[in-house]
Amino acid sequence: KAGVTQTPRYLIKTRGQQVTLSCSPISGHRSVSWYQQTPGQGLQFLFEYFSETQRNKGNFPGRFSGRQFSNSRSEMNVSTLELGDSALYLCASSLWSGFQETQYFGPGTRLLVL
Amino acid sequence: EDQVTQSPEALRLQEGESSSLNCSYTVSGLRGLFWYRQDPGKGPEFLFTLYSAGEEKEKERLKATLTKKESFLHITAPKPEDSATYLCAVQVTSGTYKYIFGTGTRLKVLA
What we know:
The structure holds 2 protein chains of 2 kinds.
Chain A: E1 5-7, E2 10-13, E3 19-24, E4 31-38, E5 42-50, E6 53-57, E7 64-68, E8 74-78, E9 87-97, E10 100-105, E11 109-113
Parallel strand pairs in A: 2-11
Antiparallel strand pairs in A: 1-3, 3-8, 4-5, 4-9, 5-6, 7-8, 9-10, 9-11
Chain B: E1 3-7, E2 10-14, E3 19-26, E4 30-38, E5 45-50, E6 56-59, E7 62-66, E8 70-75, E9 84-92, E10 98-101, E11 105-110
Parallel strand pairs in B: 2-11
Antiparallel strand pairs in B: 1-3, 3-8, 4-5, 4-9, 6-7, 7-8, 9-10, 9-11
């Protein structure tokens, strides 16, 4: 079974630009979560989508947004990029199996903002 | 405020030298506790989920345990390939199910 895929893997942008990252979950998974990982803050939860609806949201400004399509693929958008947005952005898909939640992560997109 | 703290930040072990990593949490409502392993340049790899105090799970040289305030990841007779960053996360039930990660323990196992 193919794992979670993320594109692109690396991205360089300048301040003020916007960026869109893509995530394809494991086949059959309906929940997709997004995280930001930085050396100083660790892994921080951005938001979760389930069946095209945002189910959970972390404490990030409105510049960070996302959506999920009917095939469960998800995109994350960051507008008006700031230097502090440089990070590894991780996507995780979930299979809800009874009481056990299993999250599988993709390889991430490394974003550098200059 | 919901919080997850991992210790130590970094750990160096000799091959075969067993040890434990700690994950302490202060949350309003625990839905589950997760352990992940992350290698450099890669996404976290799922290891275990624990849901209730007293629960234990094992996988090869790793064993995870859970109490009401903390979780331990025990590594028995580690090998160099166990070198990685180990992340702990909790899923909380305050309003919505949110995930809070610790900053991880960087483990280095020397041959």
